[in-house]
Write a structure and sequence with these properties.
alpha+beta, Pnp Oxidase, Chain A, 2 domains, eight-stranded antiparallel beta sheet, two-stranded antiparallel sheet, binds flavin mononucleotide
Length: about 280
């Protein structure tokens, strides 16, 4: 019988303390993480792909950034230190892709050696400008094209460099971009389960997410409006209190009203929509 079933039958569920070891996310716990391939540029201008799961949203308002934790000696870390540019490619859940991510995650290979083993196709960066950027993975569902912000302390120790990667561009396969707008279908993104017993990486298969209704209090209604409003023009952000004021606008007119307000904010070079701004344009 599975241990999880035994637990379910027991009346009292008992917690036990786990020793906190180095790499606690792999050794002292189960920890769900994304699976990304990070592309960076070598001295010779080649694109290097490295597998990385310790890659999470870090600054979510203002300087939108990811944090990446890497060994200091990895190709990825060395390339970021020298050229700053990187792209975070989110790979879909297919066993052959996960197997290749594990091969590309084997330390010590040079870029030439490892890229011979890669089954992924590379296409040019979507960033504009004359600078050279790492290529991106055409099989990826979405790609964050980033630049290292070296104003943050990055060196924890040799096995732990923390890179704050500012997001310059997000690109997504058209099919999934449409799904993002409608929110009814989700891309098959795998989860790296963290757990390491020494010989395997463990990935869990994608399964369709289920919806849970948000509580229908006043605050939530306003945050729904805020979600819709903030998507109209990313350079103009709405305060929740401003959205509170629009709760009485009938749903069918809401988008038109929001767009009108954003247009006015643009005209007046206002970047944050506050209740006071709404009052000022009322008349
Ligand atoms: C699924 C997976 C996730 C990984 N995540 C990380 C990580 O977050 N940080 C890290 O330092 N190494 C991680 N590794 C190990 C690196 O991939 C490995 O050090 C590899 O050599 C990095 O490639 P690079 O030297 O070309 O950068 C991971 C490996 C795999 C297979």
């Amino acid at each position: 019988m599975k241990l999880s079933n035994i637990f379910r039958q027991e009346k009292d569920i008992a917690f036990e303390e786990i020793p906190i070891r180095d790499n606690f996310y792999q050794t002292s716990s189960f920890f769900p993480m994304p699976v990304t391939l990070i592309s960076t540029l070598t001295d010779d201008g080649l694109t290097n792909l490295g597998s990385y799961s310790l890659c999470f949203p870090h600054i979510i308002s203002g300087n939108h950034s990811m944090i990446l934790i890497s060994r200091g000696s990895s190709n990825t870390a060395q390339n970021i230190l020298k050229r700053k540019v990187a792209a975070i490619n989110f790979i879909p859940d297919r066993k052959k892709y996960m197997k290749n991510c594990v091969e590309l995650g084997y330390p010590g290979d040079t870029t030439e050696e490892k890229m011979k083993k890669s089954i992924f196709n590379l296409v040019p960066s979507m960033r504009e400008g004359n600078e050279k950027y790492p290529m991106i993975v055409s099989e990826a569902i979405q790609v964050f094209e980033c630049r290292w912000d070296d104003s943050f302390n990055y060196k924890i120790n040799e096995s732990e460099y923390h890179f704050v990667l500012r997001i310059e561009k997000i690109v997504m396969q058209t099919y999934w971009k449409d799904a993002l707008e409608t929110g009814v279908e989700f891309p098959p993104l795998p989860v790296d389960y963290g757990f390491r017993e020494g010989i395997h990486f463990w990935f869990s298969k994608f399964s369709a997410p289920y919806a849970v209704d948000v509580p229908s209090d006043r605050q939530v209604e306003a945050s729904h409006i805020q979600f819709q409003a903030n998507r109209i023009d990313p350079s103009i952000q709405w305060e929740l209190e401003a959205c509170e004021k629009l709760k009485k606008v009938p749903k069918i007119f809401l988008n038109k009203v929001l767009k009108g307000i954003v247009q006015e904010a643009n005209n007046q070079k206002v970047t944050i929509i506050t209740p006071a701004f709404l009052d000022s344009i009322k008349n």
